[in-house]
Every structure is written in C-alpha cells, then in structure tokens.
Amino acid sequence: MTPPSGTAVLETETPTPAPIRGTLGGERKNWAEQFALALFIGIPFAALVAAVPFAWGWGLSWLDVALVVVMYAITGHGITIGFHRYFTHGSFKANRGVRVALGIAGNMAVQGPLVRWVADHRKHHKFSDQDGDPHSPWKYGPGVRSLAKGLWWSHMGWLFDVEQTDQHKYAPDLLKDRDLVRISRQFPFWVAVSLLAPAALGGLISWSWQGALSAFFWAGLVRVGLLHHVTWSINSICHAVGKQPFRSRDKSGNVWWLAIPSMGESWHNLHHADQTAARHGVLRGQLDSSARIIRWMEKLGWVRDVRWPDRARIDAKRAA
Ligand SMILES: [Zn+2]
Ligand SMILES: [Zn+2]
C-alpha cells in the first residue's frame, strides 16, 4: 500500500546541509589549522635546506647546483608550459618540433606519462572541488580533521588511487597524434634519461665518479622530489588557501610564495577563472616564468595563436 504522497515527502525531508566554505575554519582562518599546515609544509622543506650546508664541499658543488637549476627549469617548464598550458588547455599552437620537445620535457619531470597527466588534469577542471575531482583537498569535507586528510589526499594520496581517468574520454585529441602516443608510452625511458643525464654531465664535467654520483643525487633525485612537491602543492595548497581575486566555481587560490618555484602556476585562482589563458600571473608584479618563455617562443615564431589575456577579459572575471 502506498502512503499518501504528502506524508512521504515530509518523512524523507532532511535539513539542508551547511554551505561548504572556501576558507579554513569557515569565514575566518583558524590559527590552529594555519599553524599545522605551516608545520607540514615547513619542516620537511627546512630539513632539506639544512642538509645543504652539511653537504657543501663534501657531496655538493657549484656544478651540482647549476645542474639542479637547469634540470629543474627544463622539466618544470615541460610540465607548466607543455603538459599544462599547451596539451591540457590549448593556450597556444606549436610547431611539430616544439610539440615533441614539450612532450619529452614534461615526461622527464617524472609525474606520469603525458596522456595520463592531461586526462587527470582535464577531469580536475571538469569537477574542480566537487565529486569526480581526482585530487580535491575538500574530498572529505570542511573541518580540521577532514581537511588534514584531504590535503594529504590532494597532495599525494590520489596518485595511489587504482582508478584511472578514462583517456579516451578526456584526451582523445592526444590519442590521435601518433608522435604523442609514442612519447607518452616511452615514459620509463624518459625517466631514465632524466635521472642519468645529470649524472653523465656531472661525471664528464668534473671528470670523476664522485662528480657523477653527487650530480645524480642532487640534480637527479633531489630535483625530481622538489618539483614533485611544488607541482602537488598546486593541487593541495592552492585549493585550500590563497587569495581569490577572480570568480571561479571552486576553492582555487592565488599563493604568491609559490610563484617562482611553481613557474607561475600558483596564480591558480586566475587559472580556474580563465583556464585557457597562457598567462596565469595577470596582475601587477605576479611573476610567471612560463608565460615569459611562451612569449619568447612566440617571438621566435615557434608558437602562434597564443591566448594572452586582455584587460577587459581580466576585469570581467574579477570577483565582486
Ligand atoms: Zn589547468
Ligand atoms: Zn586546480
């Protein structure tokens, strides 16, 4: 027997849930959460910095530092300019040589093969901070415990998720390009190149096994680890804290202190507000080395149809 429809509605009615808030601890930042976050970010990084003087002259040389900077810049921009702004969002068009080089440089960052990276990232934009986002820090909801768990998930935990983003659904354009499919499938080979090239250079330039070993450690392992954490911080930190000068339907924020190491990607609020823009640091003084290099490549004629953000478009995206 079916109950009268009026009573059924009353029985199943649930109170409306409190709105999800975009800042830690609700409208105001909770100092305990801020402090815990700073510790989690600060301590491992401080340990790494503290290791430098200990190692100096005894396993770390100027040559190692130079190799770290060069390898970090090549592989980091392979992610930011290549995997992200070009392959995921189509911020510009590139000739075949640049297209291939960006695919290789991005693979060498050791963040997964090209096609997988792009598929995951497009899914992130489609569902940003909602159900279906592969790496939202808000996965477990707001509140200290949920957010702590969520930050871990968005930073690294999601990488261990056995469920993979559907490549045919999210990256059909890349799968149609045989060169790109080949580069993406060669991922393990480019990882080996990424780790062994600095070792070979360090060994040849210093003409010693010791030089090869220390270059392998610093410009290979430490550099990959550093770039991993910077890239993952865009998924975790830039979706949990930061200023929101632009309108976006998620929790993305602009985090100034990550601008240089992230090569402009930490202006993440603008990026979610205007995904195809080739420049993320659009406001005065916002450093964005990726945009600068795209500009140089445009002047050289290597890339074209760059989607530079114009003033009117930026103003239209501003939060009220
Ligand atoms: Zn993006
Ligand atoms: Zn994002």
From TrEMBL:
Residues 1-23 are annotated as: Disordered. Its main location: membrane. Residues 61-276 form the Fatty acid desaturase domain. It is found in: Membrane. InterPro entries: Acyl-CoA_DS, FA_desaturase_dom. Keywords: Fatty acid metabolism, Iron, Lipid metabolism, Membrane, Oxidoreductase, Transmembrane, Transmembrane helix. The chain crosses the membrane at residues 35-56, 62-83, 187-209. It is a multi-pass membrane protein. It comes from the Bacteria. Pfam families: FA_desaturase. Belongs to the fatty acid desaturase type 2 family. This is Fatty acid desaturase.
